[in-house]
Amino acid sequence: xxxxxxxxxxxxxxxxxxxxxxxxxxxxxxxxxxxxxxxxxxxxxxxxxxxxxxxxxxxxxxxxxxxxxxxxxxxxxxxxxxxxxxxxxxxxxxxxxxxxxxxxxxxxxxxxxxxxxxxxxxxxxxxxxxxxxxxxxxxxxxxxxxxxxxxxxxxxxxxxxxxxxxxxxxxxxxxxxxxxxxxxxxxxxxxxxxxxxxxxxx
Length: 202
What we know:
five-stranded mixed sheet
């Protein structure tokens, strides 16, 4: 695992995702309680409402799917820290970073999305790449434009693999000594401010 800042990022992501899983379990527990109440009512002779049972079943299935998606993302993220992780295409890294940042986006009331767009491999490790993209998304969400919709789009630009993060306020800026620039440079990327967003180019 990289240094302490990277470990703090790893822990923060795991904490956020575990909170989301607890929310899933809370809903499932609530629906299980409702089923218990319906069973008691049926035991006393009250007829069961098929539509109500169907609604409970649909809710449970939805939460199971949600929980499975969260665990899949947690697993993918955890494997980026393997001693020899598989190379991660830029578009896939963008989608994973967006998934990992959804809770923080919801807390800021920002809509967050990604467009894969590119299978190009950016140099550097998978964990460092996802961390870099996630921190750039965080910066964009800190200063969103009026629409409060931040997007990450990977593309194969003439200069090299490029990730464009849009949805920032027009007056958002990065200083020359901003830590994000240093982090990008360590990954072999150039970080530029563009109107309404940021670009990472390898």
